[in-house]
Amino acid sequence: MTPTAPRGTPAGPFGPREFQLVLLRRMADFQPGLVLDALRALDADRAELREANRRWQAWNRSNRSPRARGAAARYRSVLGEPETDEPRRVGDLECRALRWPVPLWPDLRFEVLTAPGGAVWNEWLVRAPGAPGPELRTVEDLLPWSCTVDEAARAFAPARPLEGSAPTRWRLSFTAPDRSGTRHAVLAEFTWGLLQRLPEH
């Protein structure tokens, strides 16, 4: 059963399918071809993509008041109960990591990291526990949608995180060899934690 629209959104269903459209909208600027294939898989079109994103943004704006529910509760109302809800320590702080399956990417999970009280610290796609990750050894392995931020950072350490061009976007700066062994300075761009491109620079 698809959840009904949370408070603050226009009437109509807004559930996991619509949330995946929101993820895709942010990726369409970088990978329109892959997004088009994903829309076909969801039996959706560009108009639905734009509408889902518009509703999501309107909902976020309406829930910024002091009396609004925490963002973690809003994710539960859209995605249901998380597949996993585990404690995690970040430095000296205790938080919780909530994860939901994402049918478009079966080997990934959407992770929301929350502080005590339900405030969201981070929200992005991560590899599902037990799922085989990509083999990242060279620049050529860094294909669109092939890896997550943390996977690239581990594979090509030390990597330097940089501010992205918009919310939900990240950049990583690191060096990586090509297949001939020549090392290159790389600037990788991610949306919702998933690799989108290596822009020329």
Written overview of the protein:
The protein is of the alpha+beta class. It has 3 domains: 16-62, no CATH class; 71-127, 2-Layer Sandwich (Beta-lactamase Inhibitory Protein, Chain:B, domain 1); 139-200. 27% of the residues lie in helices and 28% in strands. The protein has 5 helices and 8 strands. It has helices at residues 16-27, 32-41, 46-62, 71-79, 149-155, and strands at residues 84-90, 93-101, 108-114, 120-127, 160-163, 169-177, 183-191, 194-197. The strands form 2 sheets. Strands 1-2-3-4 form a 4-stranded antiparallel sheet. A 4-stranded antiparallel sheet has the order 5-6-7-8. The longest helix is centred in the N-terminal third of the chain and has 17 residues, at 46-62.
* Class from helix and strand fractions: alpha+beta
Annotation, overall tally of beta strands: 8
Strand-and-helix sequence, N→C? HHHHEEEEHEEEE
Low-confidence stretches: 1-11
How is the topology of this model organized?
Layout: H1 16-27, H2 32-41, H3 46-62, H4 71-79, E1 84-90, E2 93-101, E3 108-114, E4 120-127, H5 149-155, E5 160-163, E6 169-177, E7 183-191, E8 194-197
Antiparallel strand pairs: 1-2, 2-3, 3-4, 5-6, 6-7, 7-8
Defining key terms:
single chain; 201 residues; four-stranded antiparallel sheet; Beta-lactamase Inhibitory Protein, Chain:B, domain 1; alpha+beta; 3 domains; 5 helices; 8 strands
Summarize the structure.
The chain is an alpha+beta fold and 201 residues long. The chain has helices at 16-27, 32-41, 46-62, 71-79, 149-155, and strands at residues 84-90, 93-101, 108-114, 120-127, 160-163, 169-177, 183-191, 194-197. The chain folds into three domains: 16-62, no CATH class; 71-127, Beta-lactamase Inhibitory Protein, Chain:B, domain 1; 139-200.
